[in-house]
Design a protein that fits this description.
The complex is a heterodimer of chains A (598) and B (643).
Chain A (H helix, E strand, L loop, with lengths): L12 H5 L3 H4 L3 H35 L5 H47 L2 H6 L2 H43 L1 H48 L1 H7 L2 H54 L4 H42 L22 E8 L9 E8 L4 E6 L5 H8 L7 E6 L2 E2 L5 H7 E4 L8 E2 H5 L8 H10 L3 H6 L7 E2 L8 H13 L5 E5 L7 H15 L3 E5 L3 H4 L4 E6 L2 E6 L1 H7 L1 H7 L2 H13 L1
Parallel strand pairs in A: 3-10, 3-11, 6-9, 9-10
Antiparallel strand pairs in A: 1-2, 1-4, 4-5, 7-8, 11-12
Helix pairs in contact in A: 3-4, 3-6, 3-10, 4-6, 6-7, 6-10, 7-9, 7-10, 9-10, 14-16, 16-17, 19-20
Chain B lengths: L5 H10 L31 H19 L3 H37 L4 H49 L2 H7 L1 H8 L1 H34 L1 H48 L1 H6 L3 H54 L4 H43 L21 E9 L7 E10 L4 E6 L5 H8 L7 E6 L2 E2 L5 H7 E5 L9 H6 L15 H10 L3 H5 L18 H15 L3 E5 L7 H13 L5 E5 L3 H4 L4 E6 L2 E6 L1 H6 L3 H13 L1
Parallel strand pairs in B: 3-8, 3-9, 6-7, 7-8
Antiparallel strand pairs in B: 1-2, 1-4, 4-5, 9-10
Helix pairs in contact in B: 2-11, 3-4, 3-7, 3-11, 4-7, 6-7, 6-8, 7-8, 7-11, 8-10, 8-11, 10-11, 15-17
The chains are: A alpha/beta (598), B alpha/beta (643).
Amino acid sequence: MSDHLEQQPHRATLGALRRLAPYVRPHRAALIGGGLAALASSLAGLAIPLVTRAIVDGPIARSELSVLPWLVLGVLAFGLLEAGLMFLRRRLVARPSTRIEATMREDLFAHLQRLPVAFHDRWPSGQLLSRATTDLNTIRWFVAFSGIFLVVNVLTMVAGVGVLLWLSPVLGLVIAVIAVPLIVLTLALERRFSVAARRSQDQAGDLATVVEESALGIRVLKSLGRGRRLTARFVADARGLRGTELLKIRLLAALWAVLVMLPESAIALILGLGAYGVATGTLTLGTLVGAVTVMTYLFWPIASIGWLLAEASNAAAATRRYWEVRDVVPAITDPATPVPAPDPVRGELVLHEVSFRYPGGTRDVLHGVDLALRPGETMALVGATGSGKTTLTALVGRLYDVTGGAVLIDGVDVRDLRLADLRTIVATAFEEPVLISASVRENVALGLPAASDEQVWEALRVASADGFVAALPWGLDTRIGEQGMSLSGGQRQRLALARAVIGRPPVLVLDDPLSALDVHTEAEVEAALRRVLGGVTALVVAHRPSTVQLADRVALLVDGRIAAVGTHSELLAADPEYRRLLSSPDEERADEREEVGA
Amino acid sequence: MSTGTESDVGTTTETGTGKAATADVDTAGESWRGIAPEDDEADAVDRRTGLKLQQRARRLVAELLRPHRRAVTVALVLLVAENLVMLAGPLLVATAIDTGVPAALAGRPAPLAWSIAGYAATGIAGAALRSAFLLLSGRVGQDVLLDLRRRVFAHGQRLSLDFHESYTSGRLISRLTSDMDSLSDLLEKGLDGLFGAVLSLVGVTVLLVWLDPMLAAVVLIGFVPLMVITRWFQRSSRASYRRTRSTVARLIVHFVETMNGIRAVHAFRRERRNDEIMDRLTVANRDANTEAFLSVAWFIAGIRVVGNVSLALVLLIGGLRVVDGTLALGALTAFLLYLRRLYDPLDDLAQFFNSYQSAAAALEKIASVLDTPAGVPEPARPVPLPTPVRGDLEFDHVRFAYRRAAERTVLPEFSLRIPAGQTVALVGATGAGKSTLAKLAVRFYDPTSGAVRLDGVDLRDVADADLRSALVMITQEAFLFSGSVADNIAMGSGHDDGHDHRPPTRAEIAAAAEAVGAREFIEALPDGFDTDVRKRGGRLSAGQRQLVSLARVVLADPAVVLLDEATSSLDIPSERAVQAALETVLAGRTSLIIAHRLSTVLIADRVLVLADGRIVQDGSPAELLGGSGEFADLHEAWRASLA
């Protein structure tokens, strides 16, 4: 399932994490502060055994009760300081960590929206979703906890070893000896863990894709009764993820064993050597107690290194996955030196030698298409299923870029216009109108959030959708789309039409705008369409004679080439393929039946 | 309770304490969402509902763990053993210092050697036990997660369309993705902390009491503020964690809708507007996360204060008593070491509570999905359909109103019998009830009263898998799943009873495609039948997708076929090919066709004109055309449009 993902060679965890820098930098003061607070709090914690040692060796051994309360107060002060600093750390990192997550998500979302349709065709949306949620969540945890503690615990270990060396060089050396196998084993396990971390995140993304399809395709699954089969596929994928998670657990358990066993052996060694020292008089009992206590303090920082490294691996894999998508350069962008949009737009639309091939495709879908629409003209585009009509409509608004030739509006190549300008000039209505879960107003004024109610109603009127919208319980405020009122196919198509005309764009591209209308509303919407088409240049994909008749001329597309251009009656008379596609079989049949019935 | 889950929280809230559940969430910037009858996931939950949610979640946890009782027990035993072994550590240190060293000084090194060897042994055993525990509990956790994923997914597939239409895909997706993530976080980071902390709490306390009851009393008094702090944290953070879950769900909805509608986003320059909305949703989620985070900060600092104050007190009292001679120095050292072991894991406990609160909020939402009864339940004792299924479809005094708009009856007292093998076309204006009729026939919904029968068997008594293989509906929404074209067509074949069936051969798939006239275009694709359809079949035109979905029916080979605008995007020759396929390949099957093109209608044996849920005309196309009814008028208008 993950074959679409660029397989990247395993790079070092640290290198991947470095790419968090642009997001972390603005918060570095707070994060460094948090790190210092954490370090200080663990030093305060570390001071406690030292004071304890002073108490045990001093006042208690010598029965000097007078200084005891002061030393106890010292312990208390360090204890409160430790707690206060712990709070301070969390307080300091709370906002940065959640902000970093939020900003990264906003940037990812904005970036994804600007990537061309071709990118979205290629990437399963579950993979994108998992990056925006699961992966960023992992990164937040890393910034808030594991990242800081990784640094702090390493420093604590160094400090602890320093204290041990100061207490007794021999005991300190024990730690240094133990550290070598500890580091070697830990790093080896971490490397394997980070490979597993990456795999599990990819699997989670694939799982999200199945989840998404199961929810979005529920009607098809229900009507075919394929719920169980998809469930089986989902479970198989989930099982795969479980396998990887279990591998991670095994590696973590091994890490844990190493990280507990070695420090424990160190304590045993210290105890042995220390006792020997006490016995031979080279070490005080208090020093031994202190050394053992310091070592027990170091126990948690050392043991925790295992899962901290695991978290770092997770975060590194998540960062890599994040940047994999962010690094994709939008292929369809504003030109470096945009040509100002023609003003006013006459609306001449010319396709000049246009050819198109889908990225990764092996053959052209369109070959040298030449088509010229005069300003204000309506051109119907007719062709068999799969002849390239929908592809052609996507080229005008630059949802895809032509791979040969050019699309020109008023003589300007569409690639020389700013995208915002181009898409203000050209409005495209798709065959399958996508409604968002929002109010009718928001759905109609999709790209024009500032549109007034008057403008919205005007557009609805033109699309003859005003009647049913007025009848909705909250009018323009009624939520439609998946999370609201369900509308019929015909109603949705009329909204899509309203959406297309709201900005009064001079060029309209309509992909089969009447396919979902029932016989009753067809006439009504046709009348609406006639109004819509008046005065604008329009390219209309049509399947039916009635739609074709709205057009001034018709272009016949056969296998990605324009086979003929002319009026409906011209083509009917002259072109057998056109006759085959559009001669009304309904009529023939109706006549047959009538004859039978007569 | 009909549709559900979070929405019933809202209802309870309104009728409960009267606190508005959604009002305080719906801030000024939310007007774009519009108004809907059942409003969103309530964040603020009153106490009674909150308790109900928690109960549901708890019951679910118990249910999930039941099959793993033995493994959980073993894991707990391992953990207890590990803790005991680790607890022995300080004791051995104390022995080494108190008795080992003096003995060694006196020339007897054996006690010292033994205690040190013992310590090393505990270290190794502790590490081994801990690894074993991690492996075992990790496996249980992953099994539970897999089980839960499977349950939610399978239940989601079982739930009626009614549920899906009000619950929406985005929320279901967030249940299965981000809510599962927070559970997995709990299993990964939290559980271990909980058991470890609780065990060492109990074990260390016992040891402390045994070492010195008086000093232990000091420590025990410290438990009181500890409990108070924990209760406070649990209560105060619950709302913020619930809010993190519902805000992330909303964000997922927006994300998914945007990515799936990317063509419209580009064509209508909606990028900026979407950015604004995403920023707002993200900020809401961020603030909820920050708030939850800060309450954890207070909690952890509070615990640490209690711990360190106890430590100081123990040191003071213990020190005085050593000077008095009523306590051995080694005993005090051991006591102090144990005390540290008591409070260190409490940080883990806090971490656990953090993960737990988040997971609990997620679990509440998951549990409420699982608790939603399937709107169209499988019969307890299914009645088998006759073999072979004849395909006689009957609507017997069916009344129907959508639950979400119960006041509007879509079908009042509808009766209709379609004899086996008949092709019936349904005609009527939008809202006349055509699609409703089809949805009742495939049992997406059950009638409010009356019955729908297939071969005389009430659909409510037919096992779902049997029904699906007897009766298939194709709608105009031709959804393609990721995979190859062949995979998508193959979806039609087989019986969905959870068993593996022989997958259709390539020849069968090709024949099905051929039958609906799809073979030619499929073979022209880069990899033919093996071409990856990419996301939602983005590379195929709407018409091509409809052909693929029609090919599914040929493989499904059902007794009854329902086509709801299934050919709307086809050009006329393609539609003709499909009609020919329906007439030949599916000959002898009952079919119900909803179409707005008269060309499609005219192939029918019988035409029904529907208005307001009633049949206003019923007859053969020729009869109706010859008459003066609505159908004849329609046809006239349509012919006029052709001229």
